[in-house]
Amino acid sequence: MKRKYLAKDKLYALKKDFPSEMDFDDTLEKPTLIILKQQVFVEIMHTLKIRYKFDMLSNITAVDYDDHFEVVYDLANRTNNEELMVKIALAKTDPNIPTLTKLWPEADFQEREQYDLMGINFLGHPNLQRILLPDDFIGHPLQKSYKQVEKGGISEK
To answer: How far is CA 6 from CA 1, 53, 109, in A?
Structure first.
């Protein structure tokens, strides 16, 4: 099945509901919604799930830029075969964002992975603990600032 992306008219309609809280980049092949204000993050994501029928959270990843982190969500509407990418920037000094596990249960292990590897804290997550690395691993190895402490990142203390 050929991929489709959320139509621009729907993006414009969503922008009317959140005029100063979000923007979008439609110059890319996959339209990208950019959430500018974290206070409305869950509300916008809820709107995407309920009104626009994005019933699947297919991927969560994070990017470490020089001055901030960016969390990237890939959503899918399986009925209409539509996709949308959503991005939100987080300060490196406060890499916290609300969990989406109540909206999409599949966010559970994906948020844990981003916590484990990037150090993103998903507030309200029911089980936010390491998922890939040992519990005593020091740091978050996909952060640019990560320095390997000891072999394998495990402290011998």
So the answer is: 15, 11, 26
Mean pLDDT, residues 21-47: 88
99: alpha, beta or left, given left = phi > 0 and alpha = psi -120 to 50? beta
SS3 assignment for the chain = CCCEECCHHHHHHHHHHCCCCEEEECCCCCCEEEECCHHHHHHHHHHHHHCCCCCEEEEEEEEECCCEEEEEEEEEECCCCEEEEEEEEEECCCCEEECCCCCCCCHHHHHHHHHHHHCCEEECCCCCCCCCCCCCECCCCCCCCCCCCCHHHECCC
pLDDT of residue 1: 64
Average pLDDT on 24-46 reads 87
Q: Could you tell me the two tokens for 16?
A: 């009317």
Q: Please tell me the distance from the alpha carbon of residue 80 to that of residue 53, in angstroms, as a whole number.
A: 9
Name beta bridge partners: 123: 98
Across-strand partners of 68? 91
Walk me through the domains of the chain, giving residue ranges and CATH numbers: 4-144 (3.30.460.80)
Query: pLDDT value at position 29?
Result: 75
